[in-house]
Amino acid sequence: MTDTGLMMRVKSGDKRAFKSIVETHQHRVINVAYRMLGNREDAEEVAQETFLRLYLSAKSYQPKAGLFTYLYTIATRLALNRLRKRKRLRWFSLDQLQEDGDEGPGQEFPGDPADQPDRSSEQAEREAMIRRALDTLPAAQKTAVILSRYEGLSYKQIAEVMETSVSAVESKLHRAKQTLRKKLSDYFEEF
Amino acid sequence: MKCEQVQRRLSAFLDGELSKKQASRISEHVSGCPHCQQEAESLSAAWEQLGEMQEVHPSPHFWIKLNARIAQVEQRRFSLDKVRRFLDRLLVPATVVAASVFGLWIGGALYDVQRTDEPEVWEQVTASLYLDALDDFPAGSIGSVYMELISDQEGL
Q1: How does pLDDT run across B52-96, given as a tens digit for each residue?
Q2: Does residue A81 belong to the interface with chain B, where contact is any CB pair within 8 Å?
Q3: How far is B25 from chain A (nearest CA, A)?
Q4: Cβ-Cβ contacts under 8 Å, A54 against chain B
Q5: Mean pLDDT per segment of 10 residues, for chain A of length 191 residues?
Q6: B9 and chain A: CB distance < 8 Å anywhere?
Q7: What's the CATH code of the domain at A168?
Q8: Which domain CATH number covers A36?
Q9: Is A134 within 8 Å of A110 (Cβ atoms)?
Q10: Rounded to the nearest 10 degrees, how much is the dihedral formed by the CA atoms of B55, B59, B63, B68?
């Protein structure tokens, strides 16, 4: 059955149809959140919240775009909210450390090493560098890069998820690529 | 096409997002322009450097946890609905009771004032009602009849 057909059944309270939607999309949703947040626990929290919101808004769901577009929209917004909260917390902890006469933290929140048990340290280091480069991008550019590079979405699909125009997506991705070119060449030279 | 125009659309070109016509114009320019060619190669290399990121898998209890959260939210919604329905049922009788109590209280207060033997109190009441505006009404008008009634009251 299609996503739209399943959602119509969810609208009438069919939990099994909802479970089927969750099972189909949970992997993509958790991974987009993970790529944005770099932390497995946070990504799972965002994925849970995404599906909870989908369920609670099922009655008003309109199948305008694909369901995965709708899920990506919710998940990326929730992930961005978390990133904003982290930034505020980082400012707070930076103030605290400066008050204590200590040095501020030198890096963004890196991915939890425990999330990467099968990775070699070289791979983990490389991924951490990429993540640091991505973290330097403005939130909208970072979202566009993740949706394009790692999720394989077309510009049109990204525009739907980010509720913007295709030309705006093109411009964001172009600027992001220029920044990443600079950042990554710096990182890989050091490496 | 100018280099500037080509470079603005290079990302979309590299991502295969342009129409055949646009793509062939850009491709034609890039193949004959070393500067744009280098720009395209370096952007493409940076994109490739992003590589593959590790994938994570949802925990085996993902659905169980989600289902529990849904049940919790639904339970909260159900309780709130019950309270709302209860309050809705109470709204009309509570309004009637409140209006009756208020009416009785006002009536009682006015009755007490009317019964008082102290003329100053009555004067205070009439003064508080701003009845000065009703002075000197023409004979036979509603105002003068009212003032007569008030005077009779004072004479009692």
Answers
A1: 788 899 999 999 999 999 999 988 888 888 888 888 888 888 899
A2: no
A3: 18
A4: none
A5: 87 90 95 92 96 90 83 95 83 59 41 56 84 91 95 94 94 94 77 50
A6: yes
A7: 1.10.10.10
A8: 1.10.1740.10
A9: no
A10: -130
Distance from CA of A94 to the nearest CA of B (A): 29
The answer to whether B138 and B148 have CB atoms below 8 angstroms apart is no
Q: Tell me, yes or no, whether B121 and B156 share the same domain.
A: yes
The crossing angle, in degrees rounded to 10, of helices A166-190 and B34-49 is 80
Measure the CA–CA gap between B84 and A131, rounded to whole angstroms: 49
Q: What is the pTM of this model?
A: 0.70
Do the Cβ atoms of A22 and B15 come within 8 Å?
no
Instruction: Indicate whether A137 and A108 sit together in one domain.
Output: no
**B137 part of a folded domain:** yes
Please check whether residue B23 touches A, CB under 8 A: no
Domain containing residue B95:
71-112
Instruction: Kindly report the length of chain A.
Output: 191
| ipTM confidence score | 0.75
Map tokens 């493409």 to a residue.
Answer: B44
Phi, psi of A100 (to 5 degrees): -80, 0
At B34, list the tokens: 């070393």
Q: Please indicate, yes or no, whether residues A72 and A156 belong to a single structural domain of this protein.
A: no
Q: Among A88, A112, A136, which residue terminates a domain?
A: A112
Question: Is residue A106 domain-shared with residue A141, that is, in the same domain?
Answer: no
Rounded Cα–Cα distance for residues A87 and A135 (Å): 11
A181 at the B interface (CB within 8 A)? yes
Neighbours of A166 (CB within 10 A): 16
The predicted pLDDT at position A106 comes to: 36
Boundary (domain end) residue, out of A112, A137, A170: A112
Domain match, A34 and A60 both: yes
Q: Which segments in chain B show pLDDT lower than 50?
A: none
**Overall number of domains in chain A:** 2
A96 and A15, same structural domain? yes
Contact B58 A27 (CB under 8 A): yes
Contacts 24+ apart (CB under 8 A), B18-26: B25/B1, B26/B1
Q: Inter-chain contact A174–B8, Cβ cutoff 8 Å? A: yes
| Same domain, yes or no: A12 and A32 | yes
